[in-house]
Amino acid sequence: MVNGKLEQNKQQKPVSLLSKALITGFIGGVFWSFIGAIASYFNFTSVSPASFILRFWLHTGWSDGWLGQLVSIVIIGVLSTILALVYYVLLKNTQGIWPSALFGVALWFVVFYLLQPIFPNVEHMTKLTSDTIVTTFCLYLLYGIFIGYSISYEYQSNLISENV
Amino acid sequence: MKKKKIKQPISTKIKENQEFMKTKLGVGTSFDVGFRELTILNKGVQLYYLTGLCDTAIIVQLLRNIVSLNDKEKTSYKVAEKIEGELIHQQVTKVKTMDEGVDQLLSGLIVIFIEGEEEALVVDVRSYPGRSPKEPDTEKVVRGSRDGYTENIIENTALTRRRVRDERLRHEIIQVGERSKTDICISYLQDVADPGLLDVIKNELKNIEIDGISMADKTVEEYLVKQGISPFPLVRYTERPDVASSHLFEGHILVMVDTSPSMIIMPTTYFHHVQHAEEYRESPTVGTFIRWVRFIGIFASIFLLPMWLLMVMQPELLPEKLQFIGPNEVGNIPIVFQLLAADIGIEFLRMAAIHTPTPLSTAMGLIAAVLIGQIAIDVGLFSAEVILYVAISAIGSFATPSYELSIANKISRVILIIVTSLFGLKGMVIGFTLYVLLLVLTRSMNTPYLWPFIPFNGKAMVQILFRVSVPLTKSRPSIVHPRNNNRQP
Questions:
Q1: DSSP assignment, residue A12?
Q2: Distance in angstroms (rounded) separating the CA atoms of residues B6 and A149
Q3: By C-alpha distance, which of A44, A71, A35 is closest to A63?
Q4: Do A9 and B478 touch (CB under 8 A)?
Q5: Residue contact A11–B317, C-beta within 8 A
Q6: Do residue A43 and residue B426 have CB atoms under 8 angstroms apart?
């Protein structure tokens, strides 16, 4: 029993780091875009998850309702796995929460500045209300921390447990 | 480092020992230290005891046995061994120095000096004043065991051992406090608990240099974790042996401090504070339901008031279907002051209820809740909606299983209300972000506080969101870094 090499004392075959990262990405996308949808319901921001996913090419009635938000949230979840993959490949070595916070901030700039021309329904960064900017900025920051910190923490603790 | 005291050895001359006890311990001055001198087989024998902490019946029996030696034996050959043989008790030890003897004596053991001997006999006849195990007021369950930890560390280890009859359960005891010499017990499963964390805890405990820790567990906690100005509780307390043992099985480490019925559970995260034994006494579905209702309560206790305040300040934010929200009459005082005043009023009530005798506090609760609220509305001080929302968020606080967390959340709520009133929507959003950031940055014994939410851990998050049935819980939570991950061998 005391012998650590016995099979029952072995750790269960762990879910691979990569799939953990992808799950984190999906959950993070769904959760924070859900918060975003609530924020837009309460008019905290003029943009909602649906504005980025559906509204710029779909102008049907449902896409502006809750169904549109729901579909967008799921799609953002899927897109978010790609972001998680990017973070996993490039930045998993980082430590602490600040690199991931910067990642979130950078993502905000990419979406609202670089990709903005794709979305005719989203106004240019300078024309958005300050409320919208603050709210989306905070959401992206928290999203970045959620994705990035989770991935790097998981990676670091895996390193530690392998070294032991 | 602690100064090493030169320890005085026990003298073979019994008068010297008596002199030491007189000067160092104040025998004769302190009335609670007593002594009795006997002559056994022509040798002087002195027995020291502490009144109040010893069981007199046992001492009398032991004395009777020793004195009977005078009738049974003729020679004074090997008196010490004969006396030891007559001490019919399972816990008899020998000490070589006066200081050890004094330490033991002050714990309630009796010390017997025998003329011509360099060792004193110590018998554990302790009987501490204390209550019997009783259900803790703060962690009641509808069904389940009704015993709770007491102020007696020996009883507490026994209550744990009753539930964990594992030969690998370790109860390590150390003494802390130069003057108080309080016993602290570290309990853990030897083959499960994280040895790194164990070393850290032991080291921190050994390095405590203080006169005494009369506030027991709380003082120890402050030495163990770096609290800073953060109001959030960094360790979980429990007074329930079943909760403590289930944490032991998970791989947590328990720190028991004598004179306190609250056990410290480590490592701890935010989500340890939102669980309750009651959930595990119900079917998984019901447990999950209770837990979700509790989550809603906790969430409301933090965010309901700032959110409502924001909607009052900026009604244009309200979606069309919720336009009815907002006070019909604004009243004579700004809403934010009404909220803060009502919140502080409830805090008055809570504090007053803690140190008011129960029969009076029921009456006080009625006066406060019904009369003050209604009259405040009637005289135009408060608007009715303020009372409603403050009451909901106060009930949310009470639904928080951890008392410490509920107060920390209350402080967060007040700060959120203030920043919302100052900066409106931006204040609220940034305040929310900072609240999350603060929790993410908090670490308790090197454990991320908001785990398993941030950093995210799917398996553990499922355990938080749903009360998963025990047979399906196959592995230990990874946050405790268990040496043995398997819960079902």
A1: P
A2: 53
A3: A71
A4: no
A5: no
A6: no
Among A98-112, B115-129, B344-358, which stretch is predicted with the lowest mean pLDDT?
Answer: B344-358
Output the CA torsion B384→B386→B391→B396 (10° steps): 140
The answer to whether B423 contacts chain A (CB < 8 Å) is no
Q: What angle do CA A139, A140, A141 make, to 5 degrees?
A: 90
**CB neighbours of A53 closer than 8 A, spacing ≥ 6?**
A71, A72, A75, A76
Tokens 């999203």, residue? A143
Q: How many CA atoms lie within 13 A of B379 on its CB side?
A: 6
- Split at pLDDT 50, 70, 90, the class of A7 is very low
Structure tokens at B431: 């305040």
Report the relative pairing of strands B110-114 and B92-95 from DSSP bridges.
Answer: unpaired
The residue written with tokens 């008392």 in the block is B403
In residues, how long is chain B? Answer: 489
Backbone angles phi, psi at B109, to 5 degrees: -85, 160
Contacts of B452 in chain A (CB under 8 A): none
Distance between CA atoms of residues B343 and B208, nearest Å? 39
For B129, other C-beta atoms within 10 Å of its C-beta total: 8
Helix, strand, or coil here: B225? coil
The predicted structure's pLDDT at residue B5: 61
pLDDT tens profile A116-129: 888 888 888 888 89
Residue B417 burial (CB < 10 Å; 0-12/13-18/19+)? buried
What does the pLDDT read at residue B252?
Answer: 94
Q: How far apart are CA A26 and CA A18, in angstroms?
A: 12
Contacts across the A-B interface (CB distance below 8 Å): 74
Instruction: Check the CA dihedral B308-B313-B317-B322 and report its sign.
Output: positive
Q: Who wins on pLDDT, B3 or B308? A: B308
Give the chain A residue whose CA is nearest to the CA of B436. A142
Q: Give the CB-side neighbour count of residue B253, counting CA atoms within 13 A.
A: 26
